[in-house]
Specification:
The chain is 47% helix and 21% strand. By secondary structure, it is an alpha+beta fold. Strands 1, 2, 3, 6, 7, 8, 9, 10, 11 and 12 form a ten-stranded antiparallel beta sheet that branches. Strands 19, 20, 21, 22, 23, 24, 25 and 26 form an eight-stranded mixed beta sheet that branches. The N and C termini lie far apart (112 Å). Residues 1-15 have a biased composition (Low complexity). Keywords: Membrane, Transmembrane, Transmembrane helix.
């Protein structure tokens, strides 16, 4: 019965999967089985025992293998074995597995075994990773082949469209930059003309013209000189010398004694002097157009003959014919041709000055062609090609070229050059010259600036593998011919610029990214997959142990997995370290990306701001008398009150250092309150800190009687100008900033000149706060080869409206502070006490509880 049950179990499991075994393993099982059967015939009891052991030791699918092997031996060869053992095999086969061995089952099992023996195991190189790599390579070859096929068949159309669009963009860029170069002259002449029409300005007065020139000079930084000449051969000149603006006015001896330069009245005449040993008086101008009378008056001889100057004769020679044809109160300007002036090429924009219908004189602006040449070469360096600007007489105003066969960057400094003989005699430029002559574009046909946005070239085409565009038009009465030439681009440029290849390359990059992502994910998860496969193989091992298993295979896979996980963890860790600083640098770089494409080591921002530098000295001696603990509490209280005063006045502390002295840098900009400018807030803060520190020093000396001999003194410096803010480092919790630049250096210079308890400020700060605070001129010092005026800040001027606005803003802060704090806390609040003190200085009584 046990054998029958076992046979039934074998029959039910005969359709199970058949793992592959070697032929030698089958032969060993067969010999072992024959020996057992022979022993069973000799001992019935032992036979029953061995039947049980065989049944439990060998699973059903193992018997299937034995049966299949015996069946094959019977079909192919039976003579190699003794007849008796063969019969025993047959008997055993028919006795143990006859329920499972039908003809259909035997055929299916034989077919399955034959297929597995035919194909065998998969090749070890046939993995998912290799399939992905092969797929990516095939996809790359198809994509690149498609790109070249498309460009081969459609290359001519793509090239024509791409080069035409690029040439048109270059032409429009040149026209826009020329417009931006010339338009400031129109702004200056219009401003001068409008001011001359005012009733209270005398157009015959050179004093009035000197003030108008200084006021309008800030509109055009490219202008090299400005003139005004009258019928008496007198001239007023504003010129640039070594980066400084100088104003020269004709000298006129005064019948009365002139006030010293320190005392300037409203009706001060710049042309008057006690004596006139020279022809002209010289005044220096600041960068914002202010006449620096306090720096003194120079006396120079100016050799200028107004009646023979080109800028004067352009209009004065035709005055009688011009004035009647000009509408009333209309402006009349004329541009001159190119001429040599003191060893440099220049051009003038002259304006007629009349009073009623009478000729008064001529005002003119002089421009050096070196600036225009620099602009054209800048455009050529960016896009290549050639750019030429000609006047009505075919003279070269500016020209720059960077072609494959020709380069030109500098104009002659000794003579006026003509186009094309003085430029280039190549066939390309000779053909362009013939086109200009043929179509009459030397100043005959013009267009106005109203069409500048939709300006199209009057002539365009292709000459010798080069595209050209030519236009003749007027820019504020300056008639010029503009010639733009660009060369034929090469094949690689077409691939980058064409739309078809861009789409194909984008598809290729996206596919590459997806495949790389799959490879990375596969590489990260491969240790886990290897471990899972190993454990699965261990669970599926047969009990016959026909496949040898290493005892350390699972342990080695676990160790390999641990190494991969540790490597992945380190990668994430290092990425988390570098990621914040990269993000911070990217955010701080901001609007400077237009200035430079390269990543800066220290990201910076430049802004016009006010800076206050406060320095407290002598407090290290205090530490020796009161001890380190008390000293730290005092220092902490001082820093807290100073920074609170800065923050309450809409400023922020940029830097704080405690070394041999306490030094605090505070900054203000225009992005806060609109009632007061940042200079006023900085000055008000300096006075608050001065009063606060004075009271604090007095309290320290009263509280610590043994510190009478300790001398604490302080000083402050105020300046306004461009300040550079920079990120000097980052951590996980904060970003460190620093400020530097010429304005910070000027504050250090002011601190060196500052006395104890004094507040010094520069000229820019003094101009902005002079209507609200009392400031006195201190001295003039040298700084970077220039003279700097220093002023001392004294106190408020109570009668000023600006001071009333400042106190109003303080009252608003006081009201909000009362809402935030409890009534019992108000008398000890630093902000509340400073507000109360300011109101008391103004003459108001402050009730703490109302």
């Amino acid at each position: 019965m046990e054998n029958l049950n076992n046979n039934n179990n074998y029959g039910t499991n005969c359709n199970s999967s058949i793992p592959q075994y070697s032929e030698s393993s089958f032969t060993q099982h067969e010999d072992h089985f024959i020996q057992k059967q022979a022993h069973n015939k000799r001992s019935p009891r032992t036979q029953h025992t061995h039947d049980l052991s065989i049944t439990t030791a060998i699973p059903s699918h193992h018997h299937d293998r034995v049966i299949i092997e015996l069946t094959n031996d019977e079909q192919h060869s039976t003579s190699s074995k003794p007849e008796k053992p063969v019969e025993n095999k047959k008997d055993l086969s028919s006795q143990n597995v006859s329920p499972c061995l039908t003809s259909n089952n035997t055929t299916s099992l034989l077919s399955s075994l034959s297929l597995k023996q035919l194909f065998g195991k998969p090749h070890p190189n046939l993995t998912v990773m290799n399939v992905l790599v092969v797929f990516f390579l095939v996809q790359s070859l198809i994509t690149i082949g498609t790109t070249f096929v498309i460009l081969f068949y459609e290359g001519s159309d793509i090239a024509k469209k791409a080069e035409t669009v690029a040439h048109q963009d270059t032409f429009r860029t040149v026209i826009r930059n020329l417009h931006d170069f010339v338009i400031p002259a129109e702004i200056v002449t219009t401003s001068l003309h409008n001011n001359v029409l005012l009733a209270f300005i005398d157009p015959n007065s050179h004093n009035s013209w000197a003030q108008l020139m200084s006021m309008t000079s800030v509109y055009d930084r490219q202008m090299s000189s400005m003139y005004f000449g009258d019928l008496q051969n007198r001239v007023t000149v504003l010129r640039q010398r070594n980066g400084m603006m100088e104003l020269l006015v004709p000298c006129k001896r005064s019948l009365t004694k002139i006030f010293p330069p320190e005392i300037v009245t409203k009706d001060f005449d710049l042309t008057l002097a006690n004596s006139c040993p020279t022809s002209h008086l010289k005044y220096n101008l600041s960068s914002d157009g202010m006449i620096m009378i306090s720096q003194g008056v120079g006396k120079v001889n100016l050799d200028v003959n107004v009646s023979t100057s080109i800028w004067y004769t352009n209009i004065a020679d035709n005055v009688n014919a011009t004035i009647p044809s000009i509408p009333t109160r209309s402006k009349y300007t004329v541009w001159s041709n190119v001429f040599m002036n003191k060893g440099a090429l220049s051009i003038f924009a002259s304006m007629l000055v009349v009073k009623g219908n009478e000729f008064v004189g001529v005002s003119a602006l002089e421009y050096s062609l070196g600036d225009l040449q620099q602009l054209l070469c800048y455009l050529v360096e960016k896009g290549g090609g050639a750019i030429l600007v000609l006047d009505r007489q075919n003279n070269i105003l500016g020209a720059c070229a960077r072609l494959s066969h020709f380069s030109f960057y500098e104009l002659s400094s000794t003579a006026i050059q003509k186009f094309p003989n003085d430029f280039s005699t190549s066939s390309l430029f000779m053909t362009v010259h013939e086109l200009l002559v043929e179509h009459g574009l030397y100043g005959n046909q013009t267009v106005s600036f109203s069409d500048i946005t939709n300006l199209e070239p009057q002539l365009n085409g292709m000459i010798e593998q080069a595209y050209y565009s030519i236009s003749s038009f007027s820019m504020n009465n300056l008639v010029v011919n503009v010639i733009v030439i660009t060369e034929h681009t090469d094949f690689l440029t077409l691939i980058i610029n064409s739309r078809v290849s861009s789409v194909v390359i984008l598809f290729l990059v996206v596919s590459l990214g997806i495949v790389l992502l799959i490879i990375v994910v596969k590489g990260i998860t491969s240790p886990f997959q290897a471990l899972s496969k190993t454990m699965e193989n261990i669970l599926l091992l047969d009990r016959s142990m026909s496949s040898p298993v290493k005892s350390d295979c699972m342990l080695s896979d676990v160790r390999r997995m641990q190494k991969q996980v540790e490597l992945f963890r380190k990668v994430l860790f290092y990425f988390s370290l570098f990621c914040p600083e990269i993000i911070v640098k990217h955010i701080l770089k901001g609007s400077n990306a237009a200035e430079s494409d390269k990543d800066q080591l220290i990201p910076t921002k430049r802004q016009y701001m006010s800076v206050l530098v406060f320095e407290l000295n002598g407090f290290w001696e205090l530490e020796q008398h009161v001890g380190i603990d008390v000293f730290c509490r005092i220092l902490n209280r001082i820093i807290s009150e100073v920074t609170t005063s800065i923050h309450s006045n809409e400023g922020f502390v940029c830097d704080l250092s405690v070394k041999n002295s306490l030094k605090i840098h505070a900054l203000w900009n225009d992005s806060t309150m609109q009632v007061e400018n940042h200079e006023v807030r900085a000055a008000a803060t300096s006075l608050e800190i001065t009063s606060l520190i004075a009271d604090k020093i007095e309290l320290i000396q009263e509280e610590y009687s043994n510190c009478v001999n300790v001398e604490l003194h302080y000083r402050s410096a105020l300046a306004a100008g461009y300040i550079i803010l920079a990120s000097t480092g980052t951590t996980t919790s904060r970003i460190s900033f620093s400020c530097f630049g010429e304005t910070i250096a000027l504050c250090s210079l002011l601190l060196e000149q500052c006395r104890k308890g004094e507040v010094l400020m520069d000229h820019n700060m003094f101009v902005k706060v002079s209507d609200m605070f009392l400031g006195q001129y201190r001295q003039t010092i040298k700084h970077d080869n220039r003279e700097v005026d220093i002023y001392s800040l004294k106190k408020y001027m109570k009668e000023s409206s600006a001071y009333e606005q400042h106190v109003s803003s303080k009252l608003l802060q006081l009201r909000s502070r009362r809402r935030e704090l409890d009534i019992s806390e108000l008398p000890n609040d630093t902000l509340f006490k400073s507000l109360c003190k300011e109101l008391q200085d103004l003459g108001h009584e402050v009730d703490t509880f109302n």
